[in-house]
Amino acid sequence: MCIATIYFDDGSHRDKVMSDVVQIEAERDGFLLVTLFGEEKFIKGKLKSVDFLKEHSVIIQKKS
């Protein structure tokens, strides 16, 4: 099983949005994140990068 941490990136730094994410659903203007424990959160932004080898992270570029 692959569990990820989601971060917002505004170009100058990263902020952690959510940990233990096991599902990411692409929506019209963002992403629905679901954790291992069933917690859900919707975030607006666009996908910037995914790294499951080194740090199991997904970077979302924050929409202004």
TrEMBL record:
This is RNA-binding protein. It comes from marine sediment metagenome. InterPro entries: CooT. Pfam families: CooT.
